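[Solved] Which block belongs to which protein?

Original post:
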Amino acid sequence: MTQVVSISFYRFSSRRARLWALMMMVGARLAIRRVPDIGFWKICGSGGGVGFTPRINIDVFAILATWPDEATAHKRTLNTAIFNRYSARACETWTVYLRTDSVRGEWAGKSPFVISNTGKSGPIGVLTRATIKPSILRRFWARVPDISERIGGDPNVLFKIGIGESPLFQQITFSLWPDAAAVANFARTGHHAEAIKSVRAEKWFREELYARFTLLSDHGSWADAPYLQQR
């Protein structure tokens, strides 16, 4: 079996639905924990920018999970009660299914993603997760807007979003790119490259994880990912 990572995005348009989704950041934990075959999982809110951001977007929430294979991932995310409850209240839903190509670091003290070399090609997904040290917050948030703006302006980015487990301290970026060359070009130049040097030299993060994926498939639609919907 080949582990598959799913990230399900949900957009809520009404005040009542947004309040429900916000409460489910805590309220859904028991139900998700009981979903058959689920491995590592996180319920995430989203930010108002395209990467790490201190601004909260109460319209969009996400569920990240790992599964033993792609068929199981599709079955559970599309047919399990807790995922259906999110979909029923959302005005827009989209789930991406990913295979892990490389990963380094830890998430909550764990190594959640299993590398699998199946040889399948497709758009490249990049996930960065970090727990920011309280002592470095001011310096971190002074630097990050430049990086986020550059991601948003890069014509090679197929999709980008900032999500997280908690505002300010635990941040995640997820983006999709047409190929590995586009990812490498962004990572090695400009503000991003400068920030990475600072991260290493000044030890900004208490914990960090970087993972790269191949997009296997997706389900639903998302207005912020128009290029992917044309595949």
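(Second protein starts here: sequence line, then its structure tokens.)
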Amino acid sequence: MDLILVRHGRACERDSVAWPDDARRPLTVEGRDEFALLAKRLGRALPKVDLVESSGFVRAWQTAQLLAEHAGWTKPVRAERLEGDESELLPSETPRHRFQRQLDTLMRAITAMRGIDTVVWVGHEPILSHFASLLLCGDAARARVAFKKGAAVALRITEDVQLRDATGARMGGVAAQLLWMVTPGLVSRMRRA
């Protein structure tokens, strides 16, 4: 199975007056244009995907819609597991525990999807880079994945392994190998070349 992780494109700056609910913050015009170009390249390189799931936050959802429009990929479906902020803490839970809970949820989801050929997840930082690190190294904090806004990274899920969570406890999971990573800046430079 191949997993394509996509960080949402460049969005408007945080502004509590314009967007009191940060989940409603949209892509900028430049962010839409940059990502549309990247989406076209992705569609040429990978003409078919089986499932596109996205955070429902506006900036991620708009990014997923651009993938459908410009890459020709399947229409996105909302996956709440790709969202999250500290307002969703459970009683007596710290932000670190909430983050670990989200990583565990993503690991369970990807394990359950192992029969699907190509899955795309559109989401946010820092969860995407930590999840990529977890899949690549078995440790969510070991690999530094520079997930620029609008970047996409492809991972091939390879095998079941025993991973350790942030506390050192064993947990089941999967491992992956890095196939490629592309950023809007790279696509822009390729276009000029």
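Accepted answer:
You had them paired correctly. Confirming on the second one: The chain has one domain: 2-179.
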